[in-house]
Amino acid sequence: MGFRDMFEWDLEREAQERDVFFKLVHVTAGVYLWEFLVSLSFDASLLTRRRKLTFPTVISS
């Protein structure tokens, strides 16, 4: 592998890797957003004191 070989990239492979990374980032962000939205009502109930903060509640959240 010479110096010139370092700069001969396979552009189609690079595009495929970029697409896979792009999809992975979006799936990960979607899962994070879903978890945030699902737990939002629980956090709101703790802040408004509709739910009592107990030791098992601290462990589970």
List the main descriptive attributes of the protein structure presented here:
mainly alpha, 2 helices, membrane, transmembrane helix, transmembrane, rod-shaped, 61 residues
Produce a short descriptive summary.
With 61 residues, the protein is mostly helical.
Q: Mean pLDDT, as a whole number?
A: 83
Supply the number of helical segments. Answer: 2
Radius of gyration: 23 Å
Low-confidence stretches: none
Strand count: 0
How many discrete structural domains? Answer: 1
Structural class: mainly alpha
Strand content: under 5%
* C-alpha end-to-end distance: 53 Å
Order of helices and strands: HH
Helical percentage = over 70%
Q: How would you sum up the global shape?
A: rod-shaped
Q: Tell me the major beta sheet.
A: none
Would you mind describing this structure in some detail?
With 61 residues, the protein is an all-alpha fold. Helices cover 70% and strands 0% of the residues. The chain has one domain (10-60).
